[in-house]
């Protein structure tokens, strides 16, 4: 395993003067500092005996209670034994890999997909069946055709389970890296495919509450009890990533296996930040934070989209996604251009992004790049996109009129 | 994988009225609450922008700096790139397993050894070469003989590395579960074996500062640069386990691999609790905490040893270890007695412990049990051991005079 492209890009991020569109980092202004001060004062005063102690692998009871309430409010029918607290969503992905993936097993991922999910699956030896996307997200018809093809080659029924993918991994809301959202019709289509081919779906939900336009679309299989769909929620984008609090919702038999693996992986997630999260939810800080943070990021996304529109050269094939929320915009350069090569020039101009190839498990993305708009300030976004437009223009090696 | 004996025992611990000798939990009185209140107030005031943010997989720079200073003060010659922060020592064990152990690989563990280390190694498919112990800890001569035997069967040089153990796992100070300490001579002997057979040593150091009598013995290979010995340190017992802060020291090439695996495992340990730990060390809170906590636990250990001495029946073979520190005493019942069977009667009398079998990776320990003396109060220890003595007496099924 080699250190990932994102991680190396994040190192560049530390350089003074550099405008980074690389990470998926929240802006520090989004952190609910006043609320956390209040919570920390109280829990160290009143609950030190248990918030500094070990806790059950499944999670601190106080947090599990709040997460069940939270799930119920979302309309999910979840029982206590169907929920597991994890040390960030990354651990959820790792635990799922370790429970479900044996070397050589197939998993379906959107193409492109989240680089650290790919890394976690690959760490368990996964092979990938990439599912094509368009502006409505993953295309069920194409996935269905690939699965039928697989089914044919899977041969007899004994090989079936072994040859079919272990699960379909999807980020339906404001996908990483594209920022695209799976349409309602496609959500239904995806679930139908999962039913038809008897596949599990892993629904990763890190950005759902960062919606800047339009209405929430239904969670996958939200009207049925956990079974077909395993859900990963996270507090990293609304509360703070430095607390590492996420949770998995799934069928009891699956949660039991995940708990056993988590126990050997880190014994338990820290009680202290779990109690911070529990109190954050219990005191009703979640929804006000969503409002405040969405307002902050809405303007940033708008600034990036506007500046892209104003400054990007009119090159054939050059385009970008227009998300309804989340933290990323996905840029496609004209065919033949190489975003990895271009990164050197970008860094010289003091801007950074993640080249597209990192997000394609089986190759591709040479002419793509991912832009984050939550971490930089609005001013940095405008300046940075102006610089990026110049780099693109220069790299396209075409005679263009300077703006 | 099944849920471990310890974890199930911990569930029993929740019962009101029950005196638990099961976990390895610190007593809440040991938590440096006042210091943490001061630290938390300051870091949320001054450092929210980075202590709530993502941080590098290697660890928060502020904590890494303090851990290097800490290591230097121990006399270790450690460089920055030889250190990795982990989410508790359990994660360190898991990462080491994932980097070093392929299914079927051998690892050497003390016999008995830490149940969750065994679980982590087993999770990667390890087989075990158990190393016999006596009251001076692991017996180098016996380990050496086993390794020679292995070497013979390993055959040609190409099979050598594959057939020999991937590492020797040891807890030299106040071992879990026995409470025993590896003598100075044996430390040298163990390192000589590691050199001779070209094996890595993993030195787990969770309890070192909980020393109630005698002087610190040298860390393994403390006078040489990291290479032969990988060290795992933890702040769980001196600061608080609910913060999940530990760290690994090892050769750069090893740390690099561990970092890559950790990145996919949980991206990074929480920045927030890392900054708490950094400030705890920077403000000089570590040594005063060691003094205060050692005083607290010294009395508890004494109370347990005294009550064992006063109340345990004089049965042939019944004995217990007399540790110089740590958190456990290890009890051996007369041959033929079964501590797992006896646990039911113990729980009826409202006491709990961990049966010995959990700690023997290849079988054994039927007549052993582990007793923790840090979590219960001194009063509970005295009452609990009185009850335990009655249970042992009853279970021995001998006519005895009641006290």
What would you say this structure looks like, in words?
The structure is a homodimer of 403-residue chains. In chain A, helix 12 runs parallel beside helix 14. In chain A, strand 4 and strand 5 form a beta hairpin. Helices cover 44% and strands 14% of the residues of chain A. In chain A, the strands form three sheets. The first copy, chain A, has an eight-stranded mixed β-sheet with strand order 2-9-8-7-6-3-4-5, with helices on both faces. A four-stranded antiparallel β-sheet of chain A has the order 10-11-14-13. By secondary structure, chain A is an alpha/beta fold. The longest helix of chain A has 26 residues. Chain A is built from 14 helices and 14 strands.
- The Cα radius of gyration of chain A reads 21 Å
* Residues in helix, % of chain A: 40-55%
The H-and-E topology of chain A, N to C, reads as HEHHHEHEHEEHHEHEEEHHHEEHEEEH
CA(first)-CA(last) distance of chain A = 44 Å
**DSSP, total strands of chain A:** 14
Category by helix and strand content of chain A? alpha/beta
Strand order of the largest sheet of chain A: 2-9-8-7-6-3-4-5
Shape of chain A: globular
Largest sheet of chain A: 8 strands, mixed
Biggest interface reads: A-B, 61 and 61 residues
Report the uncertain regions of chain A: 398-403
- Number of DSSP helices of chain A? 14
Oligomer: homodimer
Write the SSE topology.
The structure is a homodimer of 403-residue chains.
Chain A: H1 5-13, E1 19-20, H2 33-46, H3 48-51, H4 61-73, E2 83-86, H5 88-100, E3 106-111, H6 115-123, E4 127-134, E5 137-138, H7 140-154, H8 157-163, E6 167-170, H9 184-196, E7 200-205, E8 229-234, E9 246-249, H10 252-266, H11 271-282, H12 286-311, E10 319-320, E11 328-332, H13 339-348, E12 351-352, E13 354-355, E14 368-372, H14 378-395
Parallel strand pairs in A: 1-12, 3-4, 3-6, 6-7, 7-8
Antiparallel strand pairs in A: 2-9, 4-5, 8-9, 10-11, 11-14, 13-14
Helix pairs in contact in A: 2-11, 4-11, 5-6, 5-10, 7-9, 12-14
């Amino acid at each position: 395993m080699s250190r990932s492209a994102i991680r190396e890009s994040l190192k560049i991020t530390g350089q003074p003067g550099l405008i980074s569109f690389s990470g998926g980092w929240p802006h520090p202004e989004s952190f609910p500092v006043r609320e956390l001060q209040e919570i920390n004062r109280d829990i160290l005063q009143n609950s030190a005996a248990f918030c500094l102690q070990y806790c059950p692998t499944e999670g601190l009871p106080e947090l599990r209670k709040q997460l069940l309430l939270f799930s119920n409010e979302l309309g999910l029918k979840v029982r206590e034994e169907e929920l597991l607290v994890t040390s960030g969503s990354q651990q959820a992905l790792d635990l799922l890999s370790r429970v479900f993936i044996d070397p050589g097993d197939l998993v379906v991922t959107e193409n492109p997909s989240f680089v650290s999910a790919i890394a976690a699956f690959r760490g368990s030896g996964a092979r990938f069946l990439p599912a094509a996307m368009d502006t409505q997200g993953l295309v069920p018809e194409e996935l269905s055709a690939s699965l039928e093809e697989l089914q044919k080659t899977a041969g007899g029924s004994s090989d079936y389970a072994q040859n079919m993918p272990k699960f379909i991994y999807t980020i339906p809301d404001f996908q990483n890296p594209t920022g695209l959202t799976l349409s309602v019709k496609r959500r239904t289509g995806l679930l139908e495919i999962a039913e038809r081919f008897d596949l599990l779906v892993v629904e990763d939900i890190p950005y759902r509450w960062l919606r800047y336009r339009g209405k929430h679309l239904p969670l996958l299989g939200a009207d049925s009890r956990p079974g077909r769909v395993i859900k990963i929620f996270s507090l990293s984008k609304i509360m703070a990533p430095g607390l590492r609090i996420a949770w998995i919702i799934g069928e009891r038999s699956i949660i039991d296996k995940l708990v056993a693996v988590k126990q050997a992986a880190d014994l338990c997630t820290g009680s202290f930040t779990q109690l911070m999260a529990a109190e954050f939810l219990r005191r009703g800080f979640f929804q006000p934070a969503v409002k405040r943070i969405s307002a902050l990021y809405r303007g940033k996304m708008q600034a990036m989209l506007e500046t892209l529109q104003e400054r990007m050269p009119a090159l054939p094939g050059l385009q970008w996604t227009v998300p309804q929320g989340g933290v990323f915009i996905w840029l496609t350069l004209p065919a033949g251009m190489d975003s990895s090569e271009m990164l050197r020039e970008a860094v010289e101009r003091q801007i950074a992004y993640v080249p597209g190839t990192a997000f394609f498990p089986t190759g591709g993305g040479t002419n793509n790049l991912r832009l984050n708009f939550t971490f930089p300030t609005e001013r940095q976004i405008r300046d940075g996109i102006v610089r990026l437009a110049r780099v693109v223009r220069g790299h396209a090696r075409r005679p263009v009129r300077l703006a």
